[in-house]
Amino acid sequence: MYNATAELVREASNARIIRVRPDWPKRRRLGGQYGSLGLASAADPAKLVKRAYSVSSPMVDASGALIDDDEVDWLEFYFNRVAGAPDREGLTPKLFALKSGDRIFCGEKITGHCTLERVPRERDLLLVSTTTGEAAANAILAQHLAEGRPGMACSLVLGDAAWESLYRPEHAALQKAFPRARVVEVSADDAVTRTEAMLKAAFADAETSRRSFGFALAPTKTHFFLIGDPAMIGAPRKLGAWTYEDAAGGLLPVLAKAGFTPATRFKEGDIDHESYW
Ligand SMILES: Cc1cc2nc3c(=O)[nH]c(=O)nc-3n(C[C@H](O)[C@H](O)[C@H](O)COP(=O)(O)OP(=O)(O)OC[C@H]3O[C@@H](n4cnc5c(N)ncnc54)[C@H](O)[C@@H]3O)c2cc1C
Predict the structure, then answer these.
(1) CA spacing 20 to 30 A to 235: which of 3, 151, 251, 263?
(2) Angle in degrees, CA 167, 4, 99, rounded to 5
(3) Is 178's C-beta closer than 6 angstroms to any atom of ligand 1?
(4) Do residues 206 and 253 make contact, with C-beta atoms less than 8 angstroms apart?
(5) Separation CA 75–CA 112 (nearest Å)
C-alpha cells in the first residue's frame, strides 16, 4: 500500500513541509503540477485516505543556488492543518502525526495544467497564492528561473494576520541571488481585499506597479497564476454541463475588468488558476 518514505523538513502549528522519497523512479514534471499523498484509513486500514497535493519546491539552497530537481531523490509537499469536513475522514490530521522515516503512499501520477507550458518565455509572472498554495507558486517560480526566462517574477503569498510562510529563509536567499524575483507576504485578515486594492492601484499607474511587484502589469505582457482558496480566485462556479454562476468576489473578475483573459484547455490567455477545494 505504501510506496515512499517521509521526512519532516519544517513545521509550525498550522503547516508542515515534508519530503517524500518514492520507491519508484522520479520522472520529469512541470512546476505547478500536483500528485497525491495517502495514509491508511482509521475506518478500514486496508484503504487509503488520499488527497491531491501540489509538488512544492524550496527553489534555492542556503547559498542561493537553484536546486536542480533532477539531482534530488525527493518530492517536497507543503500543507495546512485543516479542520476537515464532518462527513469524511480527513488526511491532514494523519499527515501531522507523521514522523521522519514513516512510510506513506505517494501517487506516481503527477499532472495538472497550471504550469508555464503555454506561457511565452518573455512574460513577467505574477503568482498569487493563499497559504500553502505557495507550494505550486514556488515550483513555477523555480522553473521560470531554471529555464532562464527573461521575465520578472513576483510571488504574492496571502494569509490571515497570523500567517507566516515556512519558506521565509528560501525567500531571502532567492531574492538575494535573483534580483528579478520577488516574494511578498500579504498577511492580513483582509488579504484578498488588500491584494485587489494593490492590483487596481497597479493597473492605474505603472510606477506604482513597479514599486509593488517589480514590473508594470499589462495584458499579453504579464501572466497571472492564482492558486489555492477558491474565494481568492473568484472563478465562476459550475452548476451544470454549460451553466455557470459568477463568483461574488475574488481576483478573476478584477483581472477580467483590466483586460486579462483566463487561459482554458482550448484557448491561450493571461491567467491560469488552480483551486484547492
Ligand atoms: C489540485 C490540488 C492541489 C492541492 N494542493 C495542496 C497543497 O499543496 N497544500 C495543501 O495544503 N492543500 C492542497 N490541496 C488540498 C488537499 O487536497 C486537501 O483537501 C487538504 O489537505 C485537506 O485535506 P483533508 O483530508 O484534511 O480535508 P478535506 O476533506 O480534503 O477538506 C475539508 C475542507 O477543508 C478546506 N481545505 C481544503 N484544503 C485546504 C487548504 N489547503 N487550506 C485550508 N483549507 C483547506 C476546504 O473547505 C475543504 O472542504 C490541493 C487540492 C487540489 C485539488
Answers:
(1) 151
(2) 60
(3) no
(4) no
(5) 16
Classify each residue of 169-201 as buried b or exposed e, where b means 16 or more C-beta atoms within 10 Å of its C-beta.
ebbebbeebbebbbbbbbbeeebbeebbebbee
Query: In CATH terms, is domain 124-275 a member of 3.40.50.300?
Result: no
Q: What is the pLDDT of residues 144-196, one digit of tens each?
A: 999 999 999 999 999 999 999 999 999 999 999 999 999 999 999 999 999 99
Q: Can you tell me which atom of ligand 1 is nearest the CA of 52?
A: 17
Q: What is the pLDDT of residue 243?
A: 87
Q: What does the alpha-carbon distance between residue 50 and residue 103 come to, in Å, rounded to a whole number? A: 14
User: Separation of 29 CA from ligand 1 center, angstroms?
Assistant: 21
Q: 276 pLDDT exceeds 90?
A: yes
pTM above 0.90, yes or no: yes
pLDDT, one tens digit per residue, over 43-82 is 999 999 999 999 999 999 999 999 999 999 999 999 999 9
> 4-106: CATH homologous superfamily?
Translation factors (2.40.30.10)
Q: Evaluate: CB of 135 within 6 angstroms of ligand 1.
A: yes
Would you say the CB of residue 41 lies under 6 angstroms from ligand 1? no
Dist. CA 128–CA 162, nearest whole Å? 18
Residue 1: other Cβ atoms inside 10 A:
12
Q: Which atom of ligand 1 is nearest the CA belonging to 51? A: 17
54 in contact with ligand 1, CB cutoff 6 A: yes
User: Residue 21 C-alpha to ligand 1 middle, in angstroms?
Assistant: 22
Q: Where are the domains of the chain?
A: 4-106, 124-275
Q: How far is the CA of 200 from the centre of ligand 1 (A)?
A: 29
State which ligand 1 atom lies nearest to the alpha carbon of 131. 42
| DSSP-assigned letter for residue 9 | E
